[in-house]
Amino acid sequence: MRIFLMALFAAFTIRSASAHDTWVETNTNVVRTGDSITIDLKLGNHGNDHRDFKLASKVDAQYCTLNVHAPDGTSYDLKQRLIDTGYTPAEGFWRARFVGNRPGLYLVEHTADQVMSYAPVRSVKSGKTCFVLSDKLDAVPESNPGFDKVFGHALEIVPRTNPVTPMGPGKEIAIEVLFRGKPLVGSKVSFIPEGRSLKEGFDEQYERTTDEQGSASFEPREATSYLIVAHQSDESAAGTGFKSTKYSATLTVIVPAICPCCRE
């Protein structure tokens, strides 16, 4: 019985681990110029076929990158600033603090690339989020370019509308999914509100399929954080220690109740 239970636990762990995604999120989407912002690197949404917003263990930081790209083109490596919020290696998530001194849009960009220890599969991940620095929080500029920068990730979600300004319930979130630099057609994209789990199969309310340009859009109706997720597999992408490759890409968007620039 003990051996059976151990095998059952191992199988459950493998199934759960194989479905992990990573994402980056901030504590706010608008901060005063010169003030600090919190940036979290998380691992989770392992249940319901990648369609919830729950934590699961902690990503191995040695296989990751975490950078902030400023409006002037300067990039900041946050990996050495990471703080472990967990009590044990499998608990919590990674956290870093960043202070920007120029107003404008900042883009947080993350990658992970690792051959899984539980299966001969390579896992390649990317994640993004954006925030804006403004000299005055009660007068945030509407125009903040730079959100649509393409980094060349294997699988990448590129915002096609600004995910910070303007933003609020009823404001469309438009994205494009790129796979190896080209639009990915017919890919399922999930727009997951924090605190909700999408229904089994295809959730028409929160999921879309990319068109012939690799594009999809979603109109949020509630003020909360949204985790946007896309996946792709390549059974022919084999190499040393792995027989196939699985790709995931995420984009985190904070939808405020009141738009930061138009105050509506």
The fraction of residues in strands falls at: 35-45%
| Rg from alpha-carbon coordinates | 19 Å
Distance between the termini: 61 Å
Q: Which outline best applies?
A: globular
Low-pLDDT stretches: 1-18
* Number of DSSP E strands: 17
The H-level CATH homologous superfamily, spelled out, is Macroglobulin (MG2) domain
CATH class: Mainly Beta
What's this entry about, in short?
The chain is 6% helix and 41% strand.
Provide keyphrases for this structure:
9-stranded mixed sheet; 6% helix; disordered N terminus
Describe the structure.
The protein has 264 residues and is mainly beta. Helices cover 6% and strands 41% of the residues. The protein is built from 1 helix and 17 strands. The chain has one helix at 2-17; strands spanning 21-26, 30-32, 36-44, 64-69, 75-77, 83-84, 94-99, 104-115, 121-134, 155-159, 173-179, 182-183, 188-193, 207-209, 215-218, 225-234, 244-254. Strands 2, 4, 5, 8, 9, 13, 14, 16 and 17 form a 9-stranded mixed β-sheet that branches. Strands 1-3-7-6 form a 4-stranded antiparallel β-sheet, with no helix packed on it. Strand 11 (173-179) and strand 12 form a beta hairpin. The longest helix is centred in the N-terminal third of the chain and has 16 residues, at 2-17. The radius of gyration is 19 Å and the shape is globular. The termini are far apart.
Task: Spell out the blueprint of helices and strands.
Blueprint: H1 2-17, E1 21-26, E2 30-32, E3 36-44, E4 64-69, E5 75-77, E6 83-84, E7 94-99, E8 104-115, E9 121-134, E10 155-159, E11 173-179, E12 182-183, E13 188-193, E14 207-209, E15 215-218, E16 225-234, E17 244-254
Parallel strand pairs: 2-9, 9-17
Antiparallel strand pairs: 1-3, 3-7, 4-5, 4-8, 6-7, 8-9, 10-11, 11-12, 11-15, 13-14, 13-16, 16-17
